[in-house]
Amino acid sequence: MPVSQNIKVAVDAVVFGYTSKDGLSVLLIKRNIKPYKDRWALPGGLVGDKESLEQAVQRELKEETGININYLEQLFSFGNPVRDPRNRVISIAYYGLVKPDVFEVNAATDASDAAWFNIKSLPHLAFDHGDIITVAHDRLKSKLLYQPIGFELLEAKFPFSELEKLYISVLDRPIDRRNFKKKISRFGFLEETTEKQALKGAGRPGNLFRFNEKKYHLLQKQGINFEI
Amino acid sequence: MPVSQNIKVAVDAVVFGYTSKDGLSVLLIKRNIKPYKDRWALPGGLVGDKESLEQAVQRELKEETGININYLEQLFSFGNPVRDPRNRVISIAYYGLVKPDVFEVNAATDASDAAWFNIKSLPHLAFDHGDIITVAHDRLKSKLLYQPIGFELLEAKFPFSELEKLYISVLDRPIDRRNFKKKISRFGFLEETTEKQALKGAGRPGNLFRFNEKKYHLLQKQGINFEI
DNA sequence: TCAAAAGTGTTCTTCGTACACCCATGA
DNA sequence: TCATGGGTGTACGAAGAACACTTTTGA
After folding, report:
1. How far apart are the first and last CA of chain B?
2. CA-based nearest distance B129→chain A, Å
């Protein structure tokens, strides 16, 4: 067993946002220090001696991007000895989901060093952050099929087509609308409201749905087979 | 962002073994230093500056228990600031599976400080190692339902009933033998040999099965719905 | 009246699930 | 011949998958 050790511990966050206009996107920050100066990277940084890992992620997100997220989960720990060219740093990666209002606000503040990038057109990233995003995207895809976490990416009320487009976008494959609706309806955590979607162009306006918090959280705990 | 940091990085391993006689078991070591002196704990220790996380796990397992494992996967990182009473230590936990021959050999060397404990009769453990085992057991249970990793716990050739008992033991619930066999057979990675089980008592001897490595590894990558 | 998007049902097949009797062996 | 454990099939219901036309709205 090594008697002394010189390894630093960091956290990094892959924050996903979604709008039907921009698709599935990831929040990145531009580095202003070496190494990888001026390259895009995941928000994150060293863990404080007294804070938990989750606290460290939340703190870094607030410091670097100003956002609060409503869903956060540990992803994987990356420990390749040479993943940081300076010293050895292991990174405990998390992924998070934010609702579209957060997404929109931040997309507007383009003076900042934080920006959203569509998952399909990511820039060249610092460190092994490209790999981390790949792992996070895979996790999101598979999680979407057995837990209803997709709702964490939507407004409180949304037309059904919004949920459908989210699934299409994240899974990156077409879905049959009728089968999808049948499947979702069976679980019973969706409630149809009497309101209708505000129109933004041609087409029949859809009814708005919300989810039943109780049933939703119950199912989120249990896990369900969500295959679409 | 903290300017300096005083956190150590450790790995811990939850190694599962299985025999139909002893059920699902976990490999533990007896601590001979403080804190928690003389308490049982997971094998593990600090990561060396130059080694990968997986290398650190394999090294610690060899040093502390003498075993080599054939399946190893990262489980979760535990970062509670007070999980170690001395300094802050985060632990990156792994879980591993070993085949019964390894299990038997080690169970015999009872002079050592390492021993197998049935998952249902674990001793009081050091640190948060009880929690880590719970997480590992949950992961194994759910993984068993969508990836055929159960075979990593069996000999190369085994009677079908052995696989069935493994599932019953890990999932801790009864399974219908006929439905189970139908399900497993559909995947097509099992091959029936012409050999028969060596008898150890009364009862009809079962045919021995092996798995088709190619199909097995293909499915292990893809993941399948294994619900029993 | 046309283009755009939402809403809706049926059929076929596959899979899950419940369930009980016969067979080969050792004692 | 008995006790033990292995081996096997059927029938029902639920869910997955494939598939196209009608409705509502804005332009």
Report:
1. 48
2. 18
